[in-house]
Amino acid sequence: MTISGIVICSTCQQKIKLRHQVGTIYPVKVNIPCDKCGKILKGEVVRDKECAFQFPYENVTMEFDNADQVVSVSTELPILKEKTNQVTSTLTPFLALFPGYFTMQELGDFTAKINEFDSFYKSKFNSLITLFELFENKNWFYFLNHLKENFDDEIDEIETFEHCSLMLVSLNENVFNLLRTKFYKKEFDDKIFNELYKNNHNKKEKLKELKIEIEKYINVEDEFIKGINLLGQFLENSKSFLPVVLLSSKNDFSKSYGEDLNITTFDFNELKHIFIEQFEFLSRISSIYFGLLNLEKENDFDNFGTITECNNLSFYCNRDNGIKKEIIKKEPILNDYFLNTLNSQIRNGIGHLKTNFNAKNQIIQYFPYKSPVKKDRFKEIYLIDFAFIIFQQSLKIHNSLRIIAKLNELIK
Ligand SMILES: [Zn+2]
């Protein structure tokens, strides 16, 4: 079923017809760029109200006289870009997606998955966020009580950071299983976890030394808490990430989709802050990955093996994001794991406020270079591909917390 409505831009009076394929997840934020004045109209799609489109700053009407602009709105699927000569194929976002982009099987699996996610979200989401807050404040007594009451009544009640972080990571594993694919869990999260802990289990003293070295640069406990906070922020926005969760079912995490697909659940401004915070976290935490991997391979966390330009872990920790990324590129296991999530050129473009976003075609232009000769050179990424990277960052933050919790467990 498709529902429609007309939203009239309060700035320029452009009449924009919205077409929405009814889905499962409501309410969801939507951002619609006005073709005429360029403003981004911000609203929500809801169910069980007379009008499905709620735009507090615009006028919404059901009177369908000639619209100036037509936009497909989807809350959980990406939208095929309108091709002028194929208007019929984009009648609804849902119909537009198969047989071209996703198979019936993929869409069916995705629907089952988001139904499960939705039922978790409705019944447990607030309890989970409360649990995160109790953890962030290190209220172990209340944390354990709340965990027992709402999630698992068979846990041990040991009021320590180490124990509670293991409990939280194991709960988050279940939550993230609702969002990541089995392939991703196996080929990314479990693979790197096993790489890092294959032979490190019985190296308690060396792991202790590693943690002391890392703690010269970052406070591992504070980072863990920061990571929980970032996961909370991601989960608050998780409904808006559903179109890229569907993309992840393709199990190709370096592919870009923006040539063909759009997204209406995000605006670039919201996403760029999430990207920067998550990027900085992963960039700092990558030192733990390197320390464990060096210890695993060379039995010495300072030994970077064939990466000759990096003489020890302290050297790595002291580098800026761009150089860290260059060093990661030379380590195949970590390079395959982090992929584009630590793209420091996008990070620099955003950080130096050198990005332009074209809302109409959803292209982000970024200027990654500082030197006067190259400063006007830009690169481009589509909004949907940017959101896909941010989703992958969030999965990696969860996995980083799992890796830290294991480290603490082994050295206690
Ligand atoms: Zn307008």
Descriptive labels:
three-stranded antiparallel β-sheet; binds zinc ion; four-stranded mixed β-sheet; alpha+beta; 412 residues; globular; 13% strand
Main pleated-sheet profile: 4 strands, mixed
User: Which structural class best describes the helix and strand composition?
Assistant: alpha+beta
The helicity comes to 40-55%
The dominant shape is: globular
Integer-rounded radius of gyration: 23 Å
Number of strands: 12
Bound molecule types? zinc ion
Secondary-structure element series: EEEEEEEEHHHHHHHHEHHHHHEEEH
User: How many domains make up the coordinates?
Assistant: 2
N-to-C span: 56 Å
Strand content: 5-15%
How many helices?
A: 14
Strand order of the largest sheet: 6-1-2-7
What integer is the average pLDDT?
92
Which stretches of 5+ consecutive residues score pLDDT under 50?
Answer: 84-92
Helix-strand layout with pairing:
Layout: E1 2-8, E2 15-21, E3 28-33, E4 40-45, E5 53-54, E6 59-61, E7 69-73, E8 79-80, H1 93-97, H2 104-136, H3 140-150, H4 161-176, H5 182-197, H6 204-214, H7 220-236, H8 242-248, E9 261-262, H9 268-298, H10 313-317, H11 321-329, H12 332-338, H13 344-351, E10 355-358, E11 363-366, E12 379-382, H14 383-411
Parallel strand pairs: 2-7
Antiparallel strand pairs: 1-2, 1-6, 3-4, 4-5, 8-9, 10-11, 11-12
Helix pairs in contact: 2-3, 2-4, 2-7, 4-14, 5-12, 6-9, 7-9, 7-14, 8-14, 9-14
